[in-house]
Amino acid sequence: MAIRLLPFRDYDEHDVINLFALANADVNDKLNDSGEGDAGAFVTVTAGDLDASPVGYEDGISNYMMGNHTIPHLGYNKYPEVPLKVEAAEKSDAVLGMTLRQTAKFDENGENLLRYPVKKDEYHALSPGQAVPIATKGIFMLDSRAIGTKKKDGSTAATAANLVPAAGQIAYLAGDPEGKLLFNSSSEGGAAVGTVLAVGSRAAQGPSNVDVHAGTVFLLKLEL
Question: Are 41 and 179 in contact (CB under 8 A)?
Answer without folding.
Answer: yes
